[in-house]
Amino acid sequence: MKKSTGNKKPPVFAVEKPHAMRAQDIVAQLRTSVDHGLNRADAAARLSSVGRNKLMVRKPIRFTRLVFNQFESPVVLLLVASALVAFGFGEWKEGVAVVLVLLINGTLGLVTELRAVRSMEALRVLGSLTTRLRRDGHAVLVPAEKVVPGDMVILEAGDIITADMRLTEASNLSIDESALTGESVAVDKGIEPVSSSTTIAERTSMAFKGTHIVRGSGLGVVVATGMQTELGHISKLVQEATPEQSPIERQLARLSGHLIGFTLVIVAGIGALGIFKGQETFLMIEASIALAVAAIPEGLPVVATIALARGMWRMAKHNALVERLAAVETLGATTVIFTDKTGTLTENVMRVKEINCPNSSVTLADEQNAFVNDHGVVDPLKDPCLDLALTICVLCNNAELGKNHGQNIGDPLEQALLVAAKLAEMDKSRCLLDLPRVREIAFDSDSKMMATVHSSGDKNLAFVKGAPEAIFDLCSEEFGVQRNPTFDSKRHNYWKKRTDNMADGGLRVLALAMKTMLTPNDYVYEKLTFVGLIGFYDPPRPDVSNAIAQCRSAGIRVIMMTGDHAVTARNIAHAVQLSDRLPIVVDGRNLPPAVDLKPSELKAVREADVFARVTPEQKLALITIYQRDGHVVAMTGDGVNDAPALKKADIGVAMGLRGTQVAKEAAAMVLRDDSFSSIVAAIREGRVIFRNIQNFVTYLLSCNLSEVLIVGLAVLFGLPLPLLPLQILFLNLVTDVFPAFALAMSEGNQQILTQSPRDPKKPIITRIVWFTIIAHSLSISFATLGALVLGQVLLDLSTEAAVTVSFLTLAFAQLWHVFNMRSPRSKMLLNEVTQNQYVWAALLISISLTLGVFLIPAASEALQLRLPSLASWTLILGMSLLPLVFGQIGTSISAYFYRKSTRMNTTI
């Protein structure tokens, strides 16, 4: 199935842990040059050796394979055997009829085969780019697939990284790696090596394939291409993560197995009994075919497919697009939801949360869209310190806000600063008119600061922003402090503690400072005046808390898995009320491989509410642990790093707006509005669908079991066969299917989300339901056989005419039987069945088709039916109503005991 389009040979230029090596050592090891890059001959040789910079793809499933898949079911094989036996004994009509059934089911299955493996195709899109690099000392553009280890790549803001590379130069370089790591904040990059044990999110000396540059420039030497990159490693995980069989698929497969066993036992028993009683061999073969056909509800896959497709349509109305039919029902059995943080629980947009200055502090209140303090809403421009802080935010800034709802440009943190200033009606263009920029000192990963110098009359003002620990060391005084403005060690420690408190609250902290200079070229980074701290956060989505509360009410546990820091993850979990207690956080860096987990560590894993700093491999392992515990696991995500877990989960849910194409293709469901609450609506729909499936399966099995009993009892008591194989097929595919389909269209009840998820290990049909099925089947069987006997004894009908009576009695008895599917808690006349418009339409269609047979001579001849007399019609209608009467009496008795037990429980 797998086909590699790149890396056909093992790479001979592999670099082990390049993030921990010096850049010049890697350049030397790869036999390249920073200034000149590779020459064309070397590049061509390496391309031939390591292969193209592509990701492994999987061949689409062939049409012939899809066709073959439709005939692998044991139920289908049993029908094939029935057809072969019919042909072997010259029963061409019965054989052709069974073949037609197989073709109808096969066609429906083929049409609804929705999913070939497309994850790798989506990943390949990331490689269909061009890359600017140095070859023979010149900057050239080459297709990304021709990049090789040793190439020197020129990096600029806006570029998508097309290979893994070790940075050799970095100027104010910041890369958004959220799609790969799950961390919401862009990563500032440098050229210094880092520890060999650091995670991907902390490898600041590296640039990874599939990420993009948000700020600055740089140069990097390629150390890995294609499947050797971190993205390639994830793509391999996507291929290896086999999607689990859904609960409904397992349930239907188990039910089919039981039906086959039941069929074989019954056929063998009836055959042996007939031979023992001296019946003709041909007659017993014909009876065996009839029994085999009767036992198998051929309409089951048809109705199940239509019901699930209907569920897909209803889910689409709630902005949930489902790609696999069986995934529709899987949500209803979900017990655990693993959710990503960035872009799923949060908005994936950085915002200013706090501004803390020496004399004043404000918080940006989302609900008021204003600056507030302990006394209420404030105007920050009326406070000198806050005014200066916002001025620094605007002027020491290279981002631009899009005009007329256009796209913002620049670093996400700098965009957030401009948005906060705009809220105070401070505009960048107006500020630059008052204080024109005359100089910029770009952000440097070593100093962790940037500065701009502005002309202000006869003096110059330098505005600085950067990491708090870097700016604190350079400050000598505090702005706005009158008595003792000196920024001494005591004040240093005070602000450091405030910084730590903000960080513990899940905020990313930036410090602001300024300096007055005589000339614009004076040295900036000394004797600064401290102005304040800015706290940023990625806000939770407004609808998430309510959606999570609904999940808890429905008995579903929600667990966060993120590549972000533990503190940030914990605070978001607390903000969205992920748990009804203080969230328990497990740091992925301290988590051993799943196979090495001790019992105490497994216990901690099962109790955790948040997993932070987790890798794609760890996400897969955690999902597997919960699946082995018997949970039905849903996984939400939007990044490349989420794709393997999305595929491994029982149902993967990707974000449609912010999600990468890779995540969407790996998932079974895509949310068009990225709303977590849409998952809750889809879960409700999934539960309703299962209830509907259980209902129509009950209906179909009670009808089919009655057919088995009718044929079996007729052989046992020496009666003529009351049903012929072709007649049974007609009932199963025409008369049964439409009422069953109508039952599958129920809208469900509003209280379904207040109940616990059903146990996926329990069968679709429980013991109580089996008892109900048997009781209904017996009443239908005795009514049909009674009509057969009464027709021969009282009306003196021929065998063919009596068989027509038994056929029509059974047909109408099964149609009226649909009203027995009402809930015991409902009223006899007004209930979910009688108020279902599809039920009445189904009855009209089924009755029309049944009576229409007598209007078409060829059809009535094929089914061996004769037009009944008035007396026969009276017998047919009378006997066919008996199962309905008995069923309603039984349902009423059940309702009485249910109400009685409810009153007793209420009293207690």
Summary of the model, kept short:
This protein has 908 residues and is an alpha+beta fold. Among the domains are: 2-58 and 120-240, Distorted Sandwich (Calcium-transporting ATPase, cytoplasmic transduction domain A), CATH 2.70.150; 273-321 and 694-907, Calcium-transporting ATPase, transmembrane domain (Up-down Bundle); 351-537, Calcium-transporting ATPase, cytoplasmic domain N.
Which class of secondary structure composition applies to the elements? alpha+beta
Helix content: 40-55%
CATH class of the domain at 273-321 and 694-907: Mainly Alpha
Biggest sheet, open or closed, and with what strands and sense?
Answer: 10 strands, mixed
Distance between the termini: 62 Å
Q: Nearest-angstrom radius of gyration?
A: 36 Å
